[in-house]
UniProtKB/TrEMBL annotation:
One Pfam assignment: Cyto_heme_lyase
Top class in the EC scheme: lyase
PANTHER family documented for this protein: CYTOCHROME C1 HEME LYASE, HOLOCYTOCHROME-C SYNTHASE
Catalysed reaction, written as an equation: holo-[cytochrome c] = apo-[cytochrome c] + heme b
Protein name as catalogued: Holocytochrome c-type synthase
Organism: Zygotorulaspora mrakii
Enzyme Commission identifier(s): 4.4.1.17
Biased composition annotated in UniProt, kind: Polar residues: 9-23
Function description: Lyase that catalyzes the covalent linking of the heme group to the cytochrome C apoprotein to produce the mature functional cytochrome.
Subcellular location: Mitochondrion inner membrane
Keywords of this entry: Heme, Iron, Lyase, Membrane, Metal-binding, Mitochondrion, Mitochondrion inner membrane
UniProt GO molecular function: holocytochrome-c synthase activity; metal ion binding
GO cellular component: mitochondrial inner membrane
Amino acid sequence: MAWFWADAPSNSNIDGSARSSGKLTCPVSGGSSDQSACPVMHASKGRDKLNGGSLLNPLNNMPAFISSKKQPGQKLDLPEDRSLSSIPRGSDGVTNWEYPSPQQMYNAMVRKGKIDPNTGEEIPEDAVESMVFVHNFLNEGCWQEVLEWEKPYTDKTHVAPRLLKFTGRPDQLSPRARWYALLGKLFPSYYSGEHPFDRHDWVVLRADPMSADPENPGFKKIRYVIDFYGGPDDEEGFPSFNLDVRPALDNSSNAKDRFIRYTKPIIDEYFGGANK
């Protein structure tokens, strides 16, 4: 999902359970276990250098430059305008991440062999704009979930978090996704057991005056794991998505945050009235 546009750094030489906390309904169909459903430039054997050795930008695992020009034999004129996200970039905290234009997305998928440039059979040209809409929609939903997790810290520091970088890991199930799959086998009436159709890891910068990070002074790196699940169609027949967004269990602080977040509804229900 997280296919933002990251220009090369200036000093670079390159050209219904816990997971249902983020449920989104989208008026465009989408969602597949195939990597073609997510045009993030996933690492692949021997393909980190694409077409003449273009290196990948470490911020988003994408080539430093993708053309906005129309492909040879392309029939439709796809929009070349890029949309600005609501997500601040960790590099400076002033500018926001940009999403690729439909034409750039199409070109990226052609480079990866996800679309046959002669037939366009895998993903029709007229589906690209919808794909861009779905991906942008889901990324914005992910960021809103991140902001909810970060709110206790933001309220203390009054400094908004930033997204530093992200990585697509569709072939690596998170421990929790494996656990849900196991529960689905043991208790199929309560858990679907389906695998997420995608996974991403986002590294967020959280304001921390005590941080000793030389690369990001005053900020602490927090890794988030995001599993994307396809949900059932809503009442109007539109697809829905479940976003399982949570801090990775990299340290005791993240574990504490998760414990508080997941137990708070129970504590409020059974003990909240005692203080009223």
